[in-house]
Specification:
By secondary structure, the protein is an alpha/beta fold. It folds into 2 domains: about 5-245, 2-enoyl-CoA Hydratase, Chain A, domain 1, CATH 3.90.226; about 245-299, no CATH class. Helix content is about 45%, strand content about 15%.
């Protein structure tokens, strides 16, 4: 049994993509098809912006409404699956992403069709939590996974953070998010973050095999099962509610700016010196206030 060749999808709103490549192919023996959404900014390690998510939404919408498609593959061009958000864009763009938009993980949650993340090279930050929100993750042997938020002053909350506890357990989930450690493919497999590891040159062939297995069973049953499993992502606070409650001015605070600036400037972030200066200024302000109160009492 064989596949048709990948063919670019055309149609209103689907043929002018700048940040993704959207393709479909069909299994000639089984009849069902696969839609592939490939991030296409290899020169920037496929970093994400809201423009990327907007284009992905259109492709996901089309794939989910195409009755001939049974599986969606999220892939990436170049050496790496992706390094998270575009740090230069995030200096302002994260405000919109946090307070006025939905996270890209919602595309995984709302998809009726099962999704495979096809990962090679770095799979960091937003790409990592996008991958673990997919139904399956198939990784090349050179894949490296991890989170980076606290390192670059990029807070995260919402369903995709605690959902990781369902994937790898509570302790490993906190370790990954809070310590920003990186995990090679064998470690990721051992902790249950991914489904399988194959040599890089066999990655696409392995994904095809998994797609073929899914196309050989009832697509309706797979949709029901996916929806049932995905209930694990429900019941949490909306993204950014916790962040906004704790630090409503985060993106305008020195600590909120420091991580991204340090990353761009390739230096060590000075979080604790900022905290010390804030503590000193608060103490000075308190002393001035108490002095003013004492003077008012004299009057």
């Amino acid at each position: 049994m064989s596949w048709t060749v990948w063919s670019g999808v055309t149609g209103e709103g689907l043929d002018n993509f700048k940040e993704i490549i959207y393709e479909k192919k069909h299994h000639q023996g089984l009849g069902g098809g696969v839609a592939r959404i490939s991030l296409n900014k290899p020169e920037k390690m496929n970093t994400l912006t809201l423009s990327t998510v907007d284009e992905m939404f259109r492709a996901f919408y089309d794939a989910n409404h195409d009755p001939s498609i049974g599986v969606i593959v999220v892939a990436a061009k170049g050496k790496h699956f992706g390094a998270g958000g575009d740090v230069d864009w995030e200096r302002w763009g994260l405000r919109e992403a946090f307070y006025n938009r939905y996270p890209h993980n919602r595309l995984m949650r709302m998809s009726r069709k099962p999704i495979i993340a096809q990962v090679q090279g770095y799979c960091i930050a937003g790409h990592n939590h996008m991958a673990y929100c997919c139904d399956f993750t198939i990784a090349a042997d050179n894949a490296i996974f991890g989170q980076a938020g606290p390192r670059v002053s990029s807070p995260a909350d919402g369903f995709f953070v605690p959902y990781l506890t369902k994937v790898v357990g509570a302790k490993k989930a906190r370790e990954m998010w809070m310590l920003c450690r990186k995990y090679k493919a064998p470690e990721a497999l051992a902790m249950g973050l991914i489904n399988t590891v194959v040599p890089l040159e066999q990655l696409e062939q392995e994904v095809d095999q998994w797609c073929e297995e899914m196309l050989s069973v009832s697509p309706g049953c797979l949709e029901v099962l996916k929806a049932a499993f995905d209930q694990e992502m429900d019941g949490y606070k909306e993204s950014c509610v916790t962040s906004a409650a704790l630090y409503p001015d985060w993106f305008d605070m020195p600590e909120g700016k420091e991580g991204g600036a340090a990353f761009v400037e390739k230096r060590k972030a000075e979080f604790w010196s900022i905290r010390q200066k804030e503590a000193d200024m608060r103490q000075q302000l308190l002393a001035e206030y108490e002095q003013l109160q004492a003077e008012r009492k004299k009057d």
